Amino acid sequence: MGDNPGTLTHAADLPTTLLRLLSNSLVLGQTVPYLPVSSLLALGATSKSFKDLIHRTPNVFRHLDLSNVKSAQFEIANIDNGGNSWRNVQLDENVTEDDFYGGPLLHIFNTLRRRRILQDVQTLILDGLSVTSELISDIISQDHFNVRILSIREVQNLNPRKLQQALKYAIRPSRPAGTPKLKGLYFFNPKDATLTPNLHYNPNGIPGYGGMMHSEGAQIGAEWNQRSGDTLAQEMVHGGDRWYSSTGRVLAKAPSADWDSTILACQGIISFDAVLCRGPRHTPSLPSSQTSGPWYQKANYHLAPKIATHSIGGCFGCSRAPEGISKFRSSPLENFPLLAPPPLHASTTKAAKTPFMASGYKLLLRCLDCLRNRFCESCHKWWCEDCYEIPEQGHGAGSSNQWETADSAFGRHPEKNVKVHMGLCVEHCLVAEMMSGAGSNGMWG
Ligand SMILES: [Zn+2]
Ligand SMILES: [Zn+2]
Ligand SMILES: [Zn+2]
Q: Superkingdom of the source (predicted)?
C-alpha cells in the first residue's frame, strides 16, 4: 500500500473499502485491465482520492480495449454522445475518406490525449472497428502514442497495402533509434470469441458461441464429462493455443504474397499473430555447381518466403523436421506467433507469445507449399523432406504397394514411394476413403 501515502490519509476518512483495496498496487494492477475505460474514468471522478489513484498510478491505462466502446464503432445510428462532435465532422465538405472512416477513433484518441491518458496506453485493442491505415501510421509513428501491442483483427475500412507500406516505413534502416515502439501486431486471425456481443456464459462460466450453445448445447453437455472440462474451456477461451495443436490448418486463409515479404522485412523488430514457414526449401538454395547436399537445397526446389498456415507434429518417419522443431524458451522468439487473446497484464511480445502449459511448448509450422503431397489432411501424418522425396509425376504414382518401412527415415536415401495421394496418406486414409466411396474435399482443391 506504499504507493499512495497521500491517498491513504484520505482513505481513512472515507466510508469505503474499495479505495483501500485498490490502493494496493498489486490488486489495482490485476483489476484495471478488466474494467472498461469509461468505468475507470467514472471511478476517478467520484472523489479526489479516487482521482489520484486512477490518474497518478502508473499503468492504470496500460491496456486499453476500445473494441466494445460504442462511440468507437462506425455505426451512425448507435453513435452516442462521444460521437456527436464526430457527426459534425461529416458535415464538413473538406473531409477526406480517411477522416471519415477514421473519425470516431480519432475523436477518442484526441480526448484521451487531452486527458493525458493516451501516453500510458501500451496495449491497444481495436478489433472489429473502423481503422484506417493512416490511423495505424499515427499509432506507430507519432510521439504521443506509446503502443507496444496493437490488435486490429477484423477491422473495417483498412487498406492492407497502405498498412504494409506503413510497417515497412516504420522498420526502415534509417529509422530513429528506439523506434518503432510497436513490437507486436495482431492482424491475421479472427478477433477473440470472448469479445463478441452474442457471447453467452453458461453457469459454469465457460464461454461459448451463442449459436452453438443453443443448437449443440445438448451434445456438448453429453460430451462434457468425457472430455476434460479444463481443456475444452482453454480451447474456447485461448483460441491462440491451437497453434500448438499439431492438427493441421491454424490460419484460416493464407495472407497475400505482399504479407509474406512484409513479415520477412519486420522479422526481429515487429512480431505478428502469424510467422513465416521455416521449411528447408525456403532457405537460400545451394549454387547449381554444387551437386552434394539434400535434394531440397537445390535451386529448382527453392520456395519464396511464405507465411505458415498449418501446425504439424514431428515427421511420421523420424519424429523430427529438417529445420528443427521450435521449443518455447530455447528457440529464438521470432519463431513463435503472438497468441490470442492479447495478454492483459503485460505489454511484451514474450508475454503475448507464451503458450499455456497445457498446450505444450513445441511448435512446428509449415506453409501449404511445403506440405503438398507429404501431409495427410485426415490423420495429419506428415513425412519430412529428409525421409521422403516426392516421386516425379507419372513415375511413382500408384506404385503404393511396396512399402519400405520407416527404416529409410534417416535421411541418406529419402523414400520415393508415394506416401500421400489426393491429400490422404496412401497407407491408411486413402484406402479407408476408397472403401467408403467418398472422395476427399481436399484442402488443395
Ligand atoms: Zn522425417
Ligand atoms: Zn513452407
Ligand atoms: Zn492419413
A: Eukaryota
